[in-house]
Structures are given as structure tokens and as C-alpha cells.
Amino acid sequence: MKGLYLSIASTFLVCTKVSGVPKSANLADDAGFSGLQLLPIRGVEFPENIVPTECVCSYENDSWHSNPERYGWGSWKRVFGLASDYYPLPWDHWLFEAAHHTLRRRQFFYETYPDALEVTHDAMSAVQAENCGLNRAWEIHPDKSGRLEAFLEGGWGLVLDTYHIQGVSVAEDLKGENIAPPDIPMTLVNRLMESCPDRVKLVHVHPGFWDVFSLFTRGTWSLTPMLELLKPLDVPFVLEVIPLLPVTILASWGVREPFVRVLTKIHLKIKKDLT
Predict the structure, then answer these.
(1) pTM of the predicted model, to two decimals?
(2) What rounded mean pLDDT belongs to the chain?
(3) Count: domains in the chain
């Protein structure tokens, strides 16, 4: 592992305030993280939000959702499970603006943090980057990836997300191998580590809600077997955790200690699983 970093998205409500990025960097530092992964959120390019280049390992070059303008009733229905993920969530609108703002912030990241890895969800963008020698890697994503050969073949860099890999549909590729659907994510990671581990440039440690709940109530979570498989990788690992609203709200008001304790516990668990 080449450092354990924190996604700025995990500090929601803190990162959106004035000077929010440095405040998020301070939270990460207090919890033992090496620095941040940035996102093209509102205001991130303001001068008061610039942090030292050594604090940034990577940045995502677009919003979480490919349809950032599709807000409305569909967004609120999705909160209650009544609409598909075709619609962004309401808080996506808080973080992200229209596509031209995202493109401007992507250019800002490229110029301000030239050594940081650019994470893209577009496979063709990663292929073009490989051909041009750009520092860009493709995040394997259930909406974009589809088949096993889509990421095992080719020479472009990969970003492995421990949550998204569970949604990649590769049933056709594994047909006849008698692999149960719950075992598919571990099968994919095993094959990736066996065939092309050098192509993995970054790992997103992305616990779901029940993983976090289990960690704080029982001290265990479902990510341990996958992280143990990823031990040999000498790349940055980035924590992407759903913001825990009570401690996040307190941190946005200046009461930082509860949030730091939460992040520290998750940080220590990841390090334990990787050593």
C-alpha cells in the first residue's frame, strides 16, 4: 500500500463550506490518512480551497452521476427506493453543478495537481490516455464495465472499487464454471490479481452502510477477504465511505472529535486488513 487517503466526498457538509478542502485535509490528517482524493464539487477551485500537491493522490474527473441535470421528483423518489438510479440523488445537486462547471474543475485539477491520478468512469477516455501517456485510469463500474474481458484485456490503468466490483455483470463470462453470484466479486478480483495486478493504479475502499454498522457494533466487516487479496498492491488506497450525518453535521459546526474518532476506527481496520 502506497498510502491510505480519504475521499473528500466522505466529508460531505465539511468540504462544501468556505475553505472546506483544507478543513477536510485536516480531518484526514488527524485520523491518520495520508491526504485526499478530490472531486469536482462546488467551489473546489477557489483559492482558499487549494491544498499542497503532496496531499492529493487522485481526483475524479466527472460527477458521480452521468445525468446531473435530471433533478426533480425522480430524485426524491429514488431516496425511498421508488425510482431507479437513472436519477441523481438530491444531495448530488448540492455537490455538483452542470457539466461545463465539472469540465472547468477537471482542468483546474489537471493544472494544479499534475502528479495526481485522474480517475475516469469512461473506458475510452482511459484508452486515449494510455495512448497519449496521460496519468489517467478507468474505474471499473457496474454501469460502464459489463464483461470480464472489458477490463482484463487492454493496457490501460484500472481503479478497483470494492463496492462497484460487486455490481459488475459478468455472468456470461463465468457461465459453466458453477460460480455462485455472491462469489463473483472475489472471483473477479482473484483473476485480476493473477493476470494483470500491475494495471491496478488505485483502490477505492468503499464500505456500504451495513459494513460500517457491523464494524462499529461487532468489529468486523465483509471487506476483509477482498482487502487481504489486495495486500500485494503497492498503490494508493482511498476510503470512500457514506458520510455519517450526525458526526458530519457536528464537524461542519466545528466539533471535530467525533468525526475524527469514526474515521480513525475505519482507518485502523483497513490497515489491519492490508497487513
Answers:
(1) 0.88
(2) 83
(3) 1
